[in-house]
Amino acid sequence: KIVDRIDTDKDGYITHSELQKWIKHRQRRYIEENVNKHWKDYDGNKDDKIAWEEYKNTTYGYYLGEDFDDIEDKHTYKSMLARDERRFKAADKDGDGIATREEFTAFLHPEEFDYMKDVVVQETVEDIDKNGDGKINLNEYIGDMFTPEDGETEPDWVQTEKKHFVEFRDVNK
């Protein structure tokens, strides 16, 4: 059934192009459904816009008045709030503190929007940079992809990635 849906020219085969179109279609549909689901949760005043305050209060509301004091790991919540605010502001193209549906989509799925690439890169570096020095070293780079279990031998692809890191990715050495 799914092959018939992907095979748009109905020749009985799925071409690279047909598969690529199908994947993009499914991804767009997932994003649209995800935004619609969250939209209802965050548009508290039902004005068909989501202000930063609406998002913040819905996501962090209970904790905001307490300044996260009753949470064990309040540093994590404060950093999540700051990260969300930075991303919301980046998605908010007109800077009015209120997200349209498109801006909210960019907030939830920044990887889909060219103007959000800097935020995606910044968040990725922050996630991988375990020692907080603003750089990703070889161990952090590999650790993001592979952490050996006790006694587990390192797969060949890890050696290849290490070599690529040293030879190609760390351009300034």
Descriptive terms for the model:
173 residues; mainly alpha; two-stranded antiparallel sheet; 8 helices; 2 strands; extended; EF_Hand_1_Ca_BS; EF-hand-dom_pair; EF_hand_dom
Tell me what you see in this structure.
InterPro entries: EF-hand-dom_pair, EF_Hand_1_Ca_BS, EF_hand_dom. Pfam families: EF-hand_7. Residues 1-29, 79-114, 116-151 form the EF-hand domain. This is Calcineurin inhibitor. The protein contains eight helices and two strands, in the order H-H-E-H-H-E-H-H-H-H. By secondary structure, it is mainly α. The chain has a two-stranded antiparallel ribbon with strand order 1-2. Helix 4 (74-91) crosses helix 5 (101-108). The model has no long low-confidence stretch (mean pLDDT 91).
Strand pairing plus helix content: what structural class?
mainly alpha
Beginning-to-end CA distance, first to last residue: 51 Å
- Which regions are unreliable across 5 or more consecutive residues at pLDDT < 50? none
The whole-number mean of residue pLDDT values reads 91
How many H/I helical runs? 8
The rounded Rg comes to: 21 Å
Per DSSP E runs of 2 or more residues, the count of β-strands stands at 2
What is the overall shape? Answer: extended
Keywords: Calcium, Metal-binding
Domain EF-hand: 1-29, 79-114, 116-151
Family: Belongs to the CREC family.
Protein name: Calcineurin inhibitor
Write a compact overview of the structure shown:
Belongs to the CREC family. This protein is mainly alpha-helical.
List the helices and strands and how they pair.
Elements lengths: L1 H5 L9 H27 L7 E2 H13 L9 H18 L6 E2 L1 H8 L8 H12 L9 H8 L10 H14 L4
Antiparallel strand pairs: 1-2
Helix pairs in contact: 2-5, 4-5
